[in-house]
Amino acid sequence: MRVEGRVIFAISFCLLSAVSLFISMHLHQIDGQASRLRAETLTEQLATTLEVISADRLRAVDELSNNWPQAAANPIDWFNYQARSLSKMLPGIYDIWLSDEHGQVIWGINPQVRPRIIGQSVSEKIKLFALGSPELRLLQINQRKLVIYQKSMMVDKQKRWQLTALLDTQATMDALTVDLREKPITLMVNSSEQSVFAVGEFDELYPTVKQPLVFAGMPWHLQIQSREQKILDLPTAILLNEFAALLISTLVLLWYRQQQKNKRVQRVYQAAADVSPDAMLIFLLKEASGGANQLQLFSCNAAAAKLLSTDTSDWSVHKVAAVIGLKDIETITSHVLQHQQIYHQLLKTKKRAIAADWLQITMVAIPGGIALTMQDVSTEQQLQQKIRYQATHDQLTGLLNRYAFGGALDAAIADPRQSYLCYIDMDQFKLINDSCGHLAGDDLLRKTASLLAAHLEARDSLARVGGDEFCLLLVDRDLAAVKAVLDQLLVTISQFRFQWQDQVFVIGASIGVVAVTEQFEDAVALIRAADAGCYLAKNASRNSYFIVEEQVGALNHLAQERHYLAVVRRALLTDSFELFAQPIVPLLKASGTHLEILLRLKDEFGEMISPAVFIPLAERQGFMCDIDEWVVSQVLSKIEPELLSLRHLDTIAINISGISLSDHKFLKKIKKIIKASTVPADMLCFEITETAAVSNMAQAQLFIQELRQLGCHFALDDFGVGMSSFGYLRHMAVDYVKIDGSFVKNMASNPSDAVMVKAITDIVHSLDKQAIAEFVGDDATVEMLRSFGVEYAQGFGIAKPRPLADVLQDYRF
Average pLDDT in the 364-393 region? Predict the structure, then answer.
């Protein structure tokens, strides 16, 4: 009996030991799977969130580059304002650099980094700060690991600017993992061989889940290990089970272990479900062959109970659908059960019925029923709506921005109804903005937007497309109705009084109006035409509008002016102006010849543009100082290498515009250029017109005084016409007086002109100055000028203007 008992005991013990060993290993595997499931869930959620954040930041940078204005008074100011606003709106942007077409950084929004990057090459800075290979696009600045994203902007179909956005991985990961740091979670993000972010230390006992992701175009590897589910060491578990085998019988032990196994599995499932932020509900069929009406709630996690805010113990799938507002639940569940397909839907819930505004619904078939997952995506949807609103609306006024308005214009072009585009530029805005500050300017823009919106109907559109520029689209109106609206609008604006502190301002508006037709290929061409009309309205009279179709000639003239202006800009950028020279020869004694430098410009077809066209245009658009500086610099650079061989050349005469004459900065630049050159200053003679000198006598005298101290000479050009007075001549420290050609060219046949030339010459000599006659056309005129005592002559009868390089050949020895 004892032997039998021993055999039974031995058999029972061996059997229990074997079963216990199997159970221990199986439970260890289940614990590991539960830990892996939690880690996989966290890994997928975190990877998805990182890619969404990356996409949002890149989209925002792309929209900043796409909205880059084609013309801006100061692109750095525009970039600084827009980029700083973007970084405040989207945390995780460490810095945004603006570089020019040569790759040189000209600005950055992070004041701590800015001094180290401005004027530097973007590529060199990336190599300097790169961790590992620069191709990884991972930098480290101020102990912050950053990801690079670059975007180029095209201006006039040329690459002019480049954005370099630096995304702060540390700040992004800190924000995403703040809730995980209180839990036993280990996390690591790697980029190639570089560690981007890490939390905790890995334990070999727990499974590690790895998942690749792309952050700002950069491959990352995400590793997560969850230790929330306790995993016992396998030898310890075996020892415990062997000890239990000695205490209880085989059948009790098997029953007990089986019950423990079931309960443990249930706890693993419930623990995994309860830590999930998503609501999970399992519905089972009451009958195996039942339909959707037979689905009854089997279990739900804590997130589901909280989301539904009620007792769900006796709920069916229909009741849950009614609470969250999910329609056609019968059709949906039947399709999932029959076809075993996953169903997804983004759902806007019923107000006040559930603790979430937006739910991401996922329904999947399981054995004997379905599993319903509901993820609260209210925050993400609100953020998406905010991003979409900000992408289409002006932040200051709340009106449509240029991008969104372009879509409305494209729709209007295809719409058969007659519409008109009104381009509105506010008069006096710059005065108020400069005198009272940007806060006053912003307040004025908001109030102006309200004034304009008051005249709109629901079918119309209003947008802010620039600093003080608005666009109004009037839909389904004829020209008479449009004029009526604009007349009333201008009256409203003229009657409006803008008050800021103790100051009151009157404003106005210049409006360009163009009919929306299919002759315009897109919104850009339409806005360009309306903008041209606005420009003409502003030049004609303030607080008025210009109908483009009614005055096509004026618009064509403006287009021609803008074409010439573009040629001038290109010439400054590419040094494509041409220098010509015309001799000024002595009449009374054998001495060196003077040369007057003349500026010439060709268009893209090689045709000469008259200086009478492009010089006044450059003066109006503020380019004359740059042009005059370019001429002086170029003349000195061409004379300098041939200085010793130009034995018969005394003086180089260069014309200075009245605008440059009045610019203090221009004077400083010219002095610096002259001092840096080896060409003697006394070889230079600057010609200033009588009108420019008299218009700003004080500045003209200062200009002459400063350069005469260096040794330069001066000539008073076009003397005898305009606003001249011989009295002014006594106060002008000039060496030469150029008698206007209108008196000289006909003096041989017109006694009155001859008398005038003789009188001017005598007065010039009485003031101890020398006379130069312009427009000398023949030998008879030369002889008369010589008899009058005129020292120098210039004109086609003596020599025509030729390229400077060719003229200099005549003076080499």
Answer: 76
The C-alpha angle 435, 439, 440, rounded to 5 degrees, equals 50
Residue 377 pLDDT class (50, 70, 90 cuts): confident
* Judgement on whether residues 483 and 587 belong to the same structural domain of the protein: no
Nearest to 194 by CA among 234, 145, 255: 145
CA distance 544 to 424: 10
β partners of residue 688: 656, 716
Q: In which element (H, E) is residue 234 found? A: helix 234-247
Whether the pTM exceeds 0.85: the reply is no
User: What count of other Cβ atoms lies within 10 Å of the Cβ of residue 625?
Assistant: 21
CB atoms within 10 A of CB 109: 24
Residue written as tokens 């912003």? Answer: 442
User: Which of 95-99, 321-325, 721-725 is predicted least confidently?
Assistant: 721-725
In-domain check, residue 129: yes
Instruction: Give the residue carrying structure tokens 């479900």.
Output: 273
Q: Is-contact 422 466, C-beta < 8 A?
A: no
| Residue 566 is assigned to a structural domain of this protein | no
Q: Answer for the pair 527, 423: CB distance below 8 angstroms, yes or no.
A: yes
Q: 92: which 2 tokens?
A: 């995780």
508-516 and 419-427 beta bridge pairing: antiparallel
Could you give the 3-state DSSP secondary structure of residue 600?
A: strand
pLDDT band (50, 70, 90) for residue 73: low
Q: What angle do CA 641, 645, 646 make, to 5 degrees?
A: 95
For residue 40, is it within any domain? yes
Query: 723 falls in which pLDDT band (50, 70, 90)?
Result: very low
134 pLDDT above the threshold of 70? no
Cα–Cα nearest to 687, from 727, 738, 723 = 738
Q: How far is CA 772 from the centre of its chain?
A: 55
Number of H helices, E strands in the chain: 28, 31
Q: Looking at the structure, do residues 173 and 107 belong to the same domain, yes or no?
A: yes
Classify residue 341 by burial, with Cβ atoms within 10 Å: 0-12, 13-18, 19+: exposed
**In Å, what is the CA distance from 56 to each residue of 86, 128, 407?**
11, 28, 22
Residue 607 confidence (pLDDT) above 80? no
Rounded Cα distance, 154 and 167, in Å:
23
Beta bridge partners of 423: 471, 512
Q: Taken in order 622, 623, 628, 629, is the CA torsion positive or negative?
A: positive
The token pair at 604 is 């893209």
Tell the residue number behind the tokens 């011989």, with chain if given: 726
H/E segment holding residue 491: helix 479-495
Sole residue written with tokens 């006992």: 205
- The residue behind tokens 């109004």 is 472
DSSP summary character for residue 526: H
Which residue in 412, 426, 491, 434 sits closest to 464, CA to CA? 426
Rounded Cα distance, 46 and 221, in Å:
12
**Across the beta sheet with 508-516, what order do the strands follow?**
461-464, 469-475, 419-427, 508-516, 544-547
Handedness of CA 602, 605, 606, 610 (dihedral sign): negative
Same domain (yes/no): 577, 709: yes
Give the total residue count for the chain: 813
Tokens of 337: 């059960």
Task: State how far the Cα of 31 lies from the Cα of 367, in Å rounded to an integer.
Answer: 23
Considering the domain architecture, whether residues 494 and 373 belong to the same structural domain is answered as: no
Q: For residue 645, how far is the Cα from the chain centroid?
A: 53
Within 13 Å of residue 318, how many CA atoms lie on the same side as its CB?
8
Cα separation, 361 vs 31, in Å, equals: 29
Separation of alpha carbons 53 and 111, rounded Å: 24
Is the residue at 36 inside a domain?
yes
Does 51 share its domain with 66? yes
Q: How many domains does the structure of the chain reveal? A: 4
Contact between 470 and 462 (Cβ < 8 Å): yes
Compute the distance between CA of residue 96 and CA of residue 62 in angstroms, rounded to an integer.
Answer: 12
CATH number for the domain spanning 751: value is: 3.20.20.450
